[in-house]
Amino acid sequence: MSDIGFRIKSIRKANNLNQSQFAKTIGISQGNLSEIEMGNSNPSAETLISIRVEYKVNLNWLLAGYDSTDGFTYDDSSEKKLIEEYRSLNDYDKNEIIEIVQLKNRLRSITSP
């Protein structure tokens, strides 16, 4: 089974769906899904987009098996969480967060030897 097929199967199983149900939600046949899950064929771009939209999965994880945002891989889950939360803020609040981080960095440079 290919890695992408395994990840697609894990999404399906996590949502408690059989192949027919899952395939219907992403617009492909059950047979096509079976071939993808077994690693005998690769999903089309349209299928990948359908999975991303329907199940809110990260395309980088789906394609490559690692979680990243905008091409950057975050090993630290708190850093990833910070980016996710930051993106949900309005522009005013984003600027305020940037100012807080800049202040923290200035204070650290003053107090560190």
UniProtKB/TrEMBL annotation:
Protein's name according to its UniProt entry: Transcriptional regulator
InterPro entries referenced in this protein's UniProt entry, alphabetically: Cro/C1-type_HTH, Lambda_DNA-bd_dom_sf, TransReg_Diox_bact_type
SMART domains: HTH_XRE
Keywords from the UniProt entry: DNA-binding
Keyword match DNA-binding: yes
HTH cro/C1-type domain residues: 8-62
Any Pfam family matching the protein: HTH_19
